[in-house]
Every structure is written in C-alpha cells, then in structure tokens.
Amino acid sequence: MTHPAYVQGTLDTLLAADGSVDPAARSLADTTFVVLDLETTGGAPDGAGITEIGAVKVRAGERLGEFATLVNPGAPLPPFITVLTGITEAMLRPAPSIETVLPSLLEFLRGAVLVAHNAPYDVGFLKAACARHGYPWPQIRVLDTAALARRALTRDEVPNRKLGTLAHFFRSTVTPTHRALDDAKATVDVLHGLIERLGSFKVQTLGDAIEFAKAVTPAQRRQRHLADGLPHVPGVYLFRAADDRPLYVGKSKDIATRVRSYFTAAEKRARISEMLTAAVRVEAVECAHSLEAEVRELRMIAAHAPPYNRRSKFPERVVWLKLTAEAYPRLSVVRRFADDGATYLGPFTSRRTAELAAAGVYDAVPLRQCNHKLSLRSKTPACALAELGRCPAPCEHEITPEEYDVRAALPFRTATTGDPGPVIAAILGRIDTLSDRQRYEEAAVVRSRLIALLRALIRMQRLDALTRLTEVVAARRDGKGGWEIVVVRRGRLAAAATSPPREHPRPTLDAARLTAETVLGGSGPVPAASAEETERILAWLEQPDTRLVETVGDWVSPVRGAARFAGLLTRAETAASGQDSTVRLSVTDRSDDARSLRL
C-alpha cells in the first residue's frame, strides 16, 4: 500500500512566499504606546463602574494624540470617590455610557501597545466592559509601568512604586491628580524615564521589556547575558559549565529567542534554574531548518548525555522481543537486533513495555512461556500453564514442531511483517470473554497488553517501510521564499539544506546529495539511526505540504498491515486513560465481520 499522504511534484512547482516580523522584536524607540488611565467607582470589574478615561498616544518621545472623556457609570457615585477625584454625579450625568465610548477607544488603541500603571486593574475593567457589551477584546500587548519600576528601581531610589512617587522621581511635568488624563500624562513621563533606565539592563525591544517586567529569579537576571550574540536562525544550543561539560542541549526555530526565554518569568522548572546557575556560556549550532535541528539535538544528547536533559539520553538502551530459532520457539527479551534469521519486534524503550507486549502475544497464541531449551528426543515435565490449557505442552511432546510452528509461531511472525489481524482478534476475543463474565479489571489488564503490542507493531512497520529505502529526497516550503530540502538514507538524515528565496532549488538539492553522508546498509527496522530520529523524519515527511522529489526504492507498507489498526489503538488508549468509559473497540477479520466490545 503506497502512502497516500505525500504530495508528489516536480521541482519546477516549488515556489514560496515571504514571512512577517514579530512585533515583539521591534525596538522600544520604534514602538507606538497608548498610555491609559481609568477612574472608576471602585470595586471589582463587572462591565460597568468606569467614570473617566484618559489616554495619550506616544512614539519615540513624541505625543501623537490624546483621548479623554467622562463616562456615565449608570450607578450612584460613592462619596469617597468624589472626595478622591473631584468628580461629581452632576459631572457624570450628561456623559456618554461606556458602551458608546468603547468603539472610539478601541480604535485609538489599534496597532499600539497599551501602557498603564498597575495595568491589570485598568485592563480588567476594559475587558469586562467589552465582554458585557459584545466587543471582542483586541490582541493587544500590555506593559505595566508599576511592574517595570519594581524591577528597574531599588528601594534606595524610591520608597514605593506609587505613580505619584515615580512621577516625582522622574521629574514629571504633570503631577498625578487622580484625574484620568493627568495621570496618563504623568505615566508617559514615568514610562520614558523607565525606558532610559532599561538600557542599562540591555533591554532594547518591546519583547524584552514585557519579559523584564515579569518576576524572574536572581540567577536568571544575573545570567541573562548568556543569550547575547546568539543567531536568530534554526539550530541547536548547548549550555556549558565552567569545566566545559555540556549541561543541557535544546533546539529551536530561533536560537536567540529560545535561549532568552530561559531568563524570563515563564521558565519555572527547578532543574533548569539549577542549570542556569552552573552555566557559563551557550554555544549555538546553526542548522538549515527545524528538522535538522531536531535530529542534531537528538544526536548531541546521545553523544554527551547532559545531566539536565531527561529524554533521549541513551538511545542504545532499547530492547527487542525475539522469537527464538529452535524446534519450539519462545519469546525472549534481548538487547540487540542480530541478523540471525530470527523474528524480532521492537525496539522497546523499556523491558517492562516489551514484557507487556509479550503478555499480549501469549493472550492470543499458544507460545510457550518457559525458558527451557527443549529437546526433540527427551521430555521435560510440564508446568502449570499446560495443566490450565494455556500451553500446548511441547515439553512433553504433546504437539509436533510443525504443528506448534503453525499454531503458535507463525501468527507472531506474520504479525510483525504483515497482517496482525488474527492476533489482534484473539486478544479482543479474550477481552470480550472477561467482560461478559464481569471481570472488568482483568479485561483492563489485557487491554493494556493490546495497547503495548499494537504500538510496537505499528511503529516497527512504519520504521521498516522507510529504512528499506536507500535514499529519499524531499522538499517543503520554508515560508520565506525558499525550500527546506532533506536527503534521507536508510532512515537517517544524511543532508539538509534550504534553497535561497526566488531561486530554483535544484542546485541546492544537487549540492546536498553530493555532500550527503554515506550510510551503509544494515539489518532491522532501524539499521542506521535511532528509532526516535527516524520517527522525527517520518513526521516531517508525512506533512501534507511535503513533496517527495526522488526516491530510490518503493516506499510501501503491507496492505493488511498494522497501520490499519491505528484507529483501534487510539480508541484503546482513550479508554485506558479514562477519558471515555463508553469506548468500543472493534476489529475486522478476514470475513469483514466486526467484533465489538464495550470497555
């Protein structure tokens, strides 16, 4: 069965489009701000309660416009608000309602960054008003001058972060008066003073300022310089300790942006905080595109085993289920795939998972479970499984080697390379029997075995289909006018490149093939790379917009292979996770009859 998800095309059809720049990367000097202040009746935001709005639009120190209006809150004004602000009910009675004011205010905010002192308070009232009157809240970035002041100013400089205190410290030309426009104008001066101060912290862009305002640890703030000078390209980054030991390896479509994120409030992992304390520098390995970055990350983690990486450190620590080559074969968990003519299933990431899959096989076929080396001449005493009818007792020669092979061994061999239907149907039949007897816990155990076995069968057949190919050349638009190109040999990434925008990709592709790694053949479903690397490549190749340019060999899977049970596996996993207790599993046998079972 040829894979249908791929789009086949010639290189003459490979065109592209330009991408856009993230506004967060814009410098603070080039950013348009709307500095806003609200006066309210107090209390929690409920869509009403706003009594006055004042806003000033500025860019590069220049005032571009103002927005100011009283707002009728539609409710009595508490006396203490009148004392605090000087706003009276007589002043508010002829004022427009917030529903009338919102369209103009939202238009004034369009395309700008919203700035406020204690921004969550003002933004909370505006969001509630938008929700109450059916206006969508715009996807607007928010900067809080109070939060910035907490990070940029020390207690020796200012005793508190109140607007009046900060306005006095920065010598604002306007004194805060608890009136919206005056307070917004004072906040403008505070913002400009803070932006000047941020330069000493190497905060130059809007994104940097937003992250700087968030709570970060002293270690993050101290080590922030490690992100300086890194490239904005796809690749791999490596944190190193003072003794040059690799501490942590990661990958990203944008190395500089990703590394900077480790020094923001969003990074809360304790082990990463510990790693940042020990790190003294960050190395960057630039890659052609994101797939190459993913693969290089896997290889570097496997090579260095960094202490702060948790996954992918030991790809060689896999196990296999082997059907031994003897008169009465049995399943054995082994650590190596050998080219010895035996049947293998895997790789498994742990012995426990392999044994769980083996238990699923035992539920379906009468393979012996003992570890004895049986003789064709002399008998061996039978175990309890033979007495229970779970084993055909080859140890006592109750079954011939030929019959044993047909009943027990052949279904497993067929399942690994072809149709696992009979094995899957037998397991479902056992679950059905247990459920009918209301032995639901036992049925759930057998279901977990089914899941482990199906995962292994589907995975191995997918891997084997790709690794049988001597070479695959594929391309995919990069979104910037060029094409991401890969050369895959026997499931291993042999070369990666990106063609320049608005140029034919053939020269780049030919150069990639000529300089690609030579990959020697081998045996098994992963002869030249780790299973995880080949699966990453498969995921990239199976994207709908990936073009298969050239292949050496036929990329095919068995017509009645394990992939046709992918839906069954998904439903079984859903049932096992407890997300849906009404999931029904079904399998179609050779007569196309469906067996159904409620789990």
TrEMBL record:
<dbReference type="InterPro" id="IPR050066">
    <property type="entry name" value="UvrABC_protein_C"/>
</dbReference>
<dbReference type="InterPro" id="IPR035901">
    <property type="entry name" value="GIY-YIG_endonuc_sf"/>
</dbReference>
<feature type="compositionally biased region" description="Basic and acidic residues">
    <location>
        <begin position="587"/>
        <end position="599"/>
    </location>
</feature>
<dbReference type="GO" id="GO:0009380">
    <property type="term" value="C:excinuclease repair complex"/>
</dbReference>
<keyword id="KW-0378">Hydrolase</keyword>
<dbReference type="GO" id="GO:0006289">
    <property type="term" value="P:nucleotide-excision repair"/>
</dbReference>
<feature type="domain" description="GIY-YIG">
    <location>
        <begin position="232"/>
        <end position="310"/>
    </location>
</feature>
<dbReference type="GO" id="GO:0006260">
    <property type="term" value="P:DNA replication"/>
</dbReference>
<dbReference type="GO" id="GO:0004527">
    <property type="term" value="F:exonuclease activity"/>
</dbReference>
<dbReference type="InterPro" id="IPR036397">
    <property type="entry name" value="RNaseH_sf"/>
</dbReference>
<protein>
    <submittedName>
        <fullName>DEDD exonuclease domain-containing protein</fullName>
    </submittedName>
</protein>
<dbReference type="InterPro" id="IPR013520">
    <property type="entry name" value="Ribonucl_H"/>
</dbReference>
<keyword id="KW-0269">Exonuclease</keyword>
<keyword id="KW-0540">Nuclease</keyword>
<dbReference type="InterPro" id="IPR012337">
    <property type="entry name" value="RNaseH-like_sf"/>
</dbReference>
<dbReference type="InterPro" id="IPR000305">
    <property type="entry name" value="GIY-YIG_endonuc"/>
</dbReference>
<feature type="region of interest" description="Disordered">
    <location>
        <begin position="577"/>
        <end position="599"/>
    </location>
</feature>
<dbReference type="InterPro" id="IPR006054">
    <property type="entry name" value="DnaQ"/>
</dbReference>
<dbReference type="InterPro" id="IPR047296">
    <property type="entry name" value="GIY-YIG_UvrC_Cho"/>
</dbReference>
<dbReference type="GO" id="GO:0003677">
    <property type="term" value="F:DNA binding"/>
</dbReference>
<dbReference type="GO" id="GO:0003887">
    <property type="term" value="F:DNA-directed DNA polymerase activity"/>
</dbReference>
<dbReference type="Pfam" id="PF00929">
    <property type="entry name" value="RNase_T"/>
</dbReference>
<dbReference type="Pfam" id="PF01541">
    <property type="entry name" value="GIY-YIG"/>
</dbReference>
